[in-house]
Every structure is written in structure tokens, then in C-alpha cells.
């Protein structure tokens, strides 16, 4: 069966000699790791968790998080990775929407969970796992049972494996359904990436709720990669881990590598073990790639999305003249550029919407057929990104047609920020747009119109947002008399973007 479940059951390495995961002082070989995955899978079945049930995961990077994920997938449950950057207000909304039957959370999130859990009626199994490095006794008790392969119901390629949130609004979040077949296809067809990761020592510092982190974990696990998990990304500490653990590869956002290089220039630690670094999630400056090449380290980058997983990659051997591109499509992925209005395919060099056909595509947004129909048409995914293909087949991204703001790899959805700001008494309307930011690529800015009945300051709005939104979603504030609109009354966000840039 061509499913992720089949890969976990039958194709995961089972070696006593290869280290699989390391968190702090705890190291598991692939044999021990697979044993714990089976033990937890059997425990989940015993607790009544079955195929199709949702298992929410709110844990920092560490072997508990990856063990829970693979155990749930092994029995056909749907894993719901939850961002630990979310405020209780946001977390309540997405957990209500996903209706988890089981929820695993790290000890550091107990205070948040005390606030969120009373709002959740679907949860039957609640488990505090301990920290990323030291598990709790109650969590460890789940591993006391049998370690044989679980007798779980078989999933089909079209069954959902991961439920990823591509929006964070509490009213109607978009739940992106990633299938067992899609992930199986990605793992089985990504031969070059898998070969590159075989037996490598991988620094897993990128948050496990990010698609790019999950891609690396999926590819690397079945290639026999050793994952050294870290629960933060402090650059000086990361340099020490790289040196001590002989790290060979990393996946992180461009901003991580900017700070890492600054720290290295001061501390001059040993980076000789590094073979290749990987990045993406937002535009990667060519100057950053060159700075790493200057010290003998390759920095590759990829282009993709939650809905499409990997679309394209660029590696240094493709040439620095193409470093500003998003690379070439990966195996079995077709990319074309269309006029966003007429859907006519455009010739090389002409800018239009990037459209993708891939065996890795998601199957849609759960319970949101309208949103699904807008982006999935005849087997092609409309990315919402504008760009073009050059004469050599490289993809160049020039902007976005959709409003999503990418802050250092994290998606900020204007409608969510607008929804929060609109709750402030005295605010008539607001529009949030992305503005350029030298370090993070983009950041949100809110244009606000008040009704004039009371004094509202920038500090008032920011304080209100801070209670309800993650730090990276807090916008710059500008009060205006009115918002520019078209004849249908729709806010002209392109005008606001230009206004923000010029100001």
C-alpha cells in the first residue's frame, strides 16, 4: 500500500547501530526508537484512539514530539501540529476547529492548556509529556506495554495524515488535509534529497509544526538520518551544538542563518562538519548564500507551501546567477505560469500566477469546498504567487496575488489581525497589509479608521493585539481618515501597500 502508514510499519530503519534521535542527554537508536513508536501506537489503540481520530501535538522539538507523531500516524490517526507561538485565544480557535480526541502537550505549555482545555469538548485523552528533554512519568507509563507492530486499521492513500492550519482565524480556519499517499509519494520520489540525508547528523532546530521541518523529518527518518533536536535557536548555543555533535546539515529560515553567521564571526567555532545547509519559507538573499560560500559552506533553498509541499529547489551547483530564483521543479512536479484572470498559460518570461501539478498536493481544505475550489482546479494548485519561468526552466517569484504576509517564514493572515483589531471599541474599520522588512522579508502594517467617539492610541491597539496574537503578528499602526476602495466597496490593498512603502 502506497501510504505513509505502510512506510512507518515496514520501511523505517531498525538498526541498533544508527542513532535516530537525540534530545539533551537522551539518545535512541533506530531500533529503540521504532520500539517506542510501536509501544505508544499500541497504547493509543488501548486508549480508544483509532483511524481518523485527531491527535493534537503541542510540544517543543524533541524525541517525545516525533515519537507521538509517528505513533499516531502508524495507527491511522490524524496528526494536528500546533504552533507554540499561538496565544490561548488563537489556540482555542484552531483546536475547536480540529476537534482532537487526544492532545499531547509539553510541560511549558501547562498554563496555556489550563486556559484552553475547558473550551474543548472533543478531547478524551490529555497527556502532559514533560519537556523536550525530560519526559514525565505519566507519559512514560504509556511505553510499558507491548512493542509489536500495532494491529491498526489500514489507511488508504487518500486518507488524511496531517491536518495543517494555513490560517489562524477563530471563525473559519482553513484546515489543510495532507494525505498518506501524498507524503508517501514525496518520500519515495525524493531520491536525491533522501540520498543527501542518508546517515547525516541533522540539527533539528526548526519548529516541528512547520511544513519544512516535517518534510525533513519524513525524508530523513526513512533515510536513516540522525536528528539532534534543540528546543530553541539561540545562535551561540547552536554553534556549540554544531561543533560538539558534528552536525552535517540543518534546515532553518534565512533569518536563522543571518544570526548564526554573525555569531560565528565573533566566536569562530569549528564548522568543518557541515556539508550543506537548507533554507526557504521566504526569500533568501543571494548575499547570504554568497557569504556562506565564502567560508566554504553550501546554502541551498527550496520553494513550496503547506498545500503543495516541495515544489522546487536551488542548490549552489545550479550557479550563483540563478541564486535569486526559486530553483527548478523537483521530480514529477510540473509548473506553469497563468494569467490570473483568464487562466491562459503564459510564455517564458511573462509574469503571472505560479500554478503547480504534483503527486504531493493536499486534497483540500476540510469542510471548506469554496476555498478548495479557488485553489485546486483540474489537478492544478494555484499558489497565489506571482512569477515567471526563465529560458532555463528556473522559477522566479516576484510577489503574491494573495494577501498572506510571510514574516520570516511564518504566515500572517491579514483577516485574522483585522478581526482582532475590529473588536476594539471605537474602531470603524481596518486593513492589514505586508510591508518590506530587511531582516524578516515582510511584516504586517494596519491602517485604522476610528469612529471618532473616543481617543484610541497606537499603544492601545498594540496592547490589545498582544493579548490575542502571536508576537510576529503584531502590526505597525497607522491611523487614517479613510481606506481606499473600489467601486464595489472593496479595500484596495495594493494602494495601501504602495502608500506604506512610500511612507
UniProtKB/TrEMBL annotation:
Entries under Gene3D superfamilies matching the protein: 3.30.300.30, N-terminal domain of ligase-like (3.40.50.12780)
Protein name: Class I adenylate-forming enzyme family protein
Record field: transmembrane: 208-230
InterPro entries: AMP-bd_C (IPR025110), AMP-bd_C_sf (IPR045851), AMP-binding_CS (IPR020845), AMP-dep_synth/lig_dom (IPR000873), ANL_N_sf (IPR042099), ATP-dep_AMP-bd_enzyme (IPR050237)
Statement: the UniProt record of this protein carries the keyword Signal: no
Domain AMP-binding enzyme C-terminal stretches: 416-490
Domain AMP-dependent synthetase/ligase positions: 16-365
Keyword Membrane assigned: yes
Annotated keywords: Membrane, Transmembrane, Transmembrane helix
